[in-house]
Design goal:
By secondary structure, this protein is mostly helical. Helix content is 63%, strand content 7%. The chain has one domain. The chain is built from 14 helices and five strands. The strands form two sheets. The chain has a three-stranded mixed beta sheet. A two-stranded antiparallel ribbon has the order 1-2. Helix 6 crosses helix 10 and helix 10 runs parallel beside helix 13. It is globular, with a radius of gyration of 19 Å. The structure holds zinc ion (ZN). Zinc ion (ZN) binds next to helix 6 and helix 10. Zinc ion binds next to helix 6 and helix 10.
């Protein structure tokens, strides 16, 4: 009897603890509070930055900061346009280039963005440099705004707590929640914040990445050339961290190629109008159009 009541309570808690990823319409589990995720990821970021070597290359740093800033602005424009203004307060953006030869980048919940110099080196200095960088950063910010870390911590919590998960949700069993967050983020492991995301999260972040790049005025086609470079660079027996945490490059390239024309049509003109300086009176109408269109054109098998 008691067991029945508990599992009913768990089911209820899980059902009521769902939220929706607005850009794709996908439902996700959400058992961990925003504030717990933010404080845990902030301390993870701070401890990373303590040991990381910040790049002394002023030129390269300026390139990364410029693109990251524009992607962050695009994310804020999107959240504002779709009425997710409560989420805006969670972001205190920071942009860094760190000296690390690995092909990697991340964005913590709360907007702490780090690009490794190895990634910038792979992209090179061609005409599409900023577009490819926008694809990398857009992807990482995509994980953040879709709250993939929170979802993963919630799944971890559910697994860890079993029948007493309701207590964690209602009573705020903080130790358990903290442990779930720590496990979900792989804290203390060699990957830091970079524990592999699921394939579903990866494809969703790819999609959000090209949306953000498009809103920011970059060419989303660069996501394809970026992944081709990544694939070529990781051909050996020792794949790059970004690769090993971001699997199946041929699948993601074909998904990107399907989504890019739709994303350009859906988000390009609307937001460029909305963000134009003289377009204040049309901003609301334009963004309403976007709201009704959200969630279209994205399917993961
Ligand atoms: Zn990813």
């Amino acid at each position: 009897m008691m067991k029945k009541i508990i599992s009913l309570a768990v089911a209820t808690a899980v059902l009521t603890a769902c939220s929706t990823v607005s850009m794709t319409g996908r439902k996700q589990l959400n058992l961990v509070s925003e504030s717990e995720i933010l404080s845990a990821s902030l301390s993870e970021y701070q401890s990373y930055m303590k040991t990381a070597k910040v790049s002394t290359d002023a030129n390269a740093t300026a390139i990364v900061k410029n693109v990251a800033q524009r992607i962050a602005a695009a994310a804020e424009a999107y959240l504002t346009a779709t009425g997710q203004t409560a989420d805006l307060q969670n972001y205190a953006w920071e942009f860094n280039l760190t000296q690390d030869a690995n092909l990697n980048a991340f964005c913590m919940p709360g907007g702490k963005i780090v690009v490794y110099s190895g990634m910038l080196g792979l992209i090179g200095n061609g005409a599409d440099r900023d577009d490819e960088l926008a694809a990398v950063i857009g992807h990482e910010v995509g994980h953040a705004i879709a709250k993939h870390g929170q979802e993963r911590a919630s799944q971890q919590l559910l697994q860890q707590m079993g029948g007493s998960v309701l207590g964690a949700v209602v009573g705020g069993a903080s130790t358990q929640t903290q442990q779930a967050i720590a496990t979900a983020y792989g804290m203390g492991t060699q990957y830091g914040a970079l524990l592999p995301f699921s394939r579903k999260h990866e494809l969703e972040a790819d999609y959000i990445g090209i949306v953000l790049a498009t809103i920011a005025g970059y060419d989303a086609d660069a996501a394809v050339t970026l992944w081709q470079k990544m694939e070529a660079a990781s051909g050996g027996s020792n794949p790059a961290p970004f690769m090993s945490t971001h699997p199946s490059s041929s699948k993601r390239i074909s998904e990107l190629q399907k989504s890019i024309p739709k994303v350009k049509a859906e988000y390009g003109a609307v937001y460029q109008q909305a963000t134009a300086p003289a377009a204040t009176t049309t901003t609301k109408n334009s963004t309403k159009t976007t709201t009704t269109n959200k969630g279209t054109g994205f399917k993961i098998g």
